[in-house]
Write a structure and sequence with these properties.
about 325 residues, alpha/beta, five-stranded mixed sheet, 5 strands, about 60% helix
Length: about 325
Amino acid sequence: MTITRRAVALGLAATAIQAMMLIAFAWPTVNLAPRDLPIAVAGPGSVQVAEQLRQRDSEAFEITTVADASEARTALADNEIYGAIVTGNGAPQVLVASAASPAVAQQLTAVAQQLSGLPAAQVQDVIATDPDDPRGAGFGSMVLPLVMSGIAAGVLLTLLIPSLGARLAGLATFGIAGGLLSTLVFHTWLSILPGAYLELAAIAGLASFAVSATIVGLAAAIGRPGIGLGALTMLLVGNPFSAATSAPELLPQPWGTLGQLLPPGAAASLLRSVAYFDGAGAIAPLTVLLAWAAGGVALLGIAAVRSRPVSTSATTPEPMAVPA
């Protein structure tokens, strides 16, 4: 292939990537809608409210009936539901947790107020986002830098560090230092998230390590194509379907679920869980991050074993004596 043809081919490849990025980032945004969104209804009118919600869209909500507002608040604090509609004593009350998803809180408020036969609903934000980030915009913008820096670290370590052991040392350094510094920015300076600094730093560091270790591990296992495979997975699938600015149940399925099985989505869910819900619902995203981190290290270890020189030395048997 001539240089000109190669340049044209690279230009077409870049065009394809550009189209894929536009689709990956824009398509989920224009298709946000409730899909089996966990909510609760309470009070004497709970049956009526649940029926009205099902008539509006039978697949929009996963409805649980609870005894009263107190039980609904407990479910919100345990990160089991996104909101609740409480009936009785006049106008219905909408309980939301904007910390779980400001977008869902807005949608639930609008839905409750549009229910036929019900007066305007009163809204109580039981677990609110940080006052310095009331709309969650700052939190939503955190995911892409974590992904991009993880990709950059993985690429640089792969291309510039020949030793596999040294790459692992670089990954560990990036995970620790990156987690501490990034948390210093979004927690201490910008005040995007509340909570304990070291806990949030550990999550940010684990997420950064998981992304970069995936890049390094894939590259060590299958060569330079592993860089592209890992980077495109994290950037074109993991980031837009992370639900950092919405909720997994608002995204088209199965992409909302898939996004939670990748480091960006798991990191967003784990940060929310630890910062606002005392760790409720943290086990699943933590397991995902640990699995990706361990997978990258395992691939790096397999590559190290395969690259060891095979010893060819062998004991040469002594010649047998020939009888006279």
